[in-house]
Amino acid sequence: MIGIFNQCKHVALTIAVAAGMVGLTIPQALAWGTSASRSTVRSAQTQLKNDGYYKGHVDGLDGPLTHAAIRRFQRANNLAVNGRLDRQTRTQLGLPVSGEASRAMMPYTSPTGTAVSSHAQKPVSTPTVKAAQRMLRQQGYYSGALTGNMGPNTRTAIRKYQKGNNLTVNGQLDQATLKSLGVPAS
């Protein structure tokens, strides 16, 4: 029992020190841990790192470095700057916005050959993804294999393309992105 008390005391002290270092109140610092699951934070850190906003370790810890990266991302994408993984920020990062613990973070290919995303509105066919990969490769955004799968490398390439072409940056093959790439929608 004493060990648990000492560990809680240590965690509280760590939060207080970290909060003071970045100018937050204790309630704001405590809110860090409740804003998103560790897997969601890890996915956000990975995407933010791929996009050049996050320089820390991808550890799933929702701390000052993560919040600073989120704020930079929010500023760059004209979102409300609050340093949290709110609904708009998650959507812009291409992360699920609800039920995160039970939903897959990355899309998969269904048995029928359709790339399915947990946050896309419409499934995108494997041939469409492959055509998009080909166009992204031709323009220097993608260097992977033409698999037709919406994996993390494809999603990162899409986001870089969207950013470079003044499109909504969401990592999805939405209608505007497909049109810009010259790929017919499936």
Helix content: 40-55%
Mean pLDDT: 75
Q: Runs with pLDDT <50, length 5+?
A: 25-34, 100-121
Q: Report the structural category.
A: mainly alpha
What is the H-and-E element order? HHHHHEEEHHH
**CATH topology annotation of the largest domain:** Muramoyl-pentapeptide Carboxypeptidase, domain 1
Give the overall shape.
elongated
Question: What fraction of residues sit in β-strands?
Answer: under 5%
CATH superfamily of the largest domain: PGBD-like superfamily/PGBD
Distance between the termini: 59 Å
Describe this structure in words.
By secondary structure, the protein is mainly alpha-helical. It has helices at 2-22, 26-32, 38-50, 64-76, 87-93, 126-138, 152-164, 175-181, and strands at residues 108-109, 114-116, 124-125. It has a three-stranded antiparallel β-sheet. It is elongated. Mean pLDDT is 75; it is low at 25-34 and 100-121.
Q: What secondary-structure arrangement, pairings included, does this model have?
A:
Blueprint: H1 2-22, H2 26-32, H3 38-50, H4 64-76, H5 87-93, E1 108-109, E2 114-116, E3 124-125, H6 126-138, H7 152-164, H8 175-181
Antiparallel strand pairs: 1-2, 2-3
Keywords, please?
3-stranded antiparallel beta sheet; 186 residues; 3 strands; 2 domains; Muramoyl-pentapeptide Carboxypeptidase, domain 1; mainly alpha; 8 helices
